[in-house]
Sequence to fold (448 residues):
Amino acid sequence: MRYNGYLRFIAVIYIVVMVGNLFSQNPIIRDQFSADPSARVFEDKVYVYPSHDILANEERGRIGWFCMEDYHVFSSENLVDWTDHGVIVSQNTVPWVDSTSYSMWAPDCIYRNGKYYFYFPARAISQEPRRGRGIGLAISENPYGPFKPEPNPIEGVLGIDPNAFIDKDGQAYLYYSLRKIFVAKLNENMLELDSEPVAIENLPDQGLKEGPFMFERNGIYYLTYPHVEDSTERLEYAMGDNLLGPFKVAGVIMDQRLDCWTNHHSIIEYKGQWYLFYHYNDLSPKFDKNRSVRIDSLFFNEDGKIQKVNPTLRGVGLTDASQKIQIDRYSHISDKGASVTFLDTLNTFEGWKTTLDTTNAWIQYNSIDFGNNKLNSINVKAFSQTGAVLEIRLKNADGPMIAVVEIPKSSEWMTVKAPLSEFQSGVHNLFVQLKNNNNVELDWVSFE
Ligand code: FUB
Fold:
């Protein structure tokens, strides 16, 4: 019965492929909350398997706590345009999961011999709420599904945050956490353990460690993990030449952010560049258990050490000049007279706006692709009760001015068009500056 229900459910959701509010800037998913991103390169595309935060209420979950009932998967070829492939696994369709637990925390997915193995933690039926979680699997022939859940969780594992890794010799490993980080060998079939889990040694003694992510580069194994060194999680890493350890703690990948207690990440190389996927509560500043996935570039020193990543709003990739460019996801902003706030505080999924309210206040948005075909005008979605004048430049404050946009006095938002005095093909930064002492709000700009 239950399995038939699952098949019907899959048939409905499998055909739903959504291109919703998905962006190249941070956060990348803006029509739902998303956390704990496990990014993987499959078939020359990047797939992201995040957790899916929802808000608990009287009917579902525990108010004030994490609440997660299913998983989506997202894919992109350029890290800019993302496709939401819909729900791949739900607490209602996994036979062993307590479908009232809303406990589907951080997952992972790995490819082996023509199949995709999706690992996820959840509370099993009759499991004590506070006694860890089981880790189960769903299997598919495609990275985007449909995934068929296994009837039982993996035997011998109690924990969260599964991370699967296959070494060069073909041996697969399962890392996971339960305050500490554990590792065990996986059988060839990827469904069972092939060794007793052992806690990884030589990591910091004090403070929660979770969310392990293992990768290998130039013969060095990197065990990366969120750790509470002070008051919230920061991303740290240890290096070693054996993936079971010993590892040597090597540094911090991202500092703690006080507004969001958790951080959870993955690291991939794609088209010659390394990327850090992580999360932050961008769309829910007052409640840090509704989080959003972000991406930033990651770099290594020559000795193999990871350079610390400063989280950005701009994120990665090039933004097409003809798209609505959300300049509130800025690269740089003036110290005085410029700020970013939600368009609608009651519906943060609407996104943000920039306010400029002092002469010469500015905002800069980097890496816009203007292409090779001449563009003639700029459109600015703006609102100014007093009227305002904007200068638009390429590069920075000293770069060539390409337009002056006069925003008329108005009591509502309007799209104002102005001619470009100059066109430069290729990739450029955009610099927008207020030239009078009035107040203007900006939603987006685009070129045509
Ligand atoms: O998303 C729920 C939990 O928060 C994850 O399993 C942890 O890694 C932390 O991000």
The mean pLDDT is 94. The chain has two domains: 2-298, 319-447. The first strand starts at residue 35 and ends at 42. Residues 2-14 form the longest helix (13 residues).
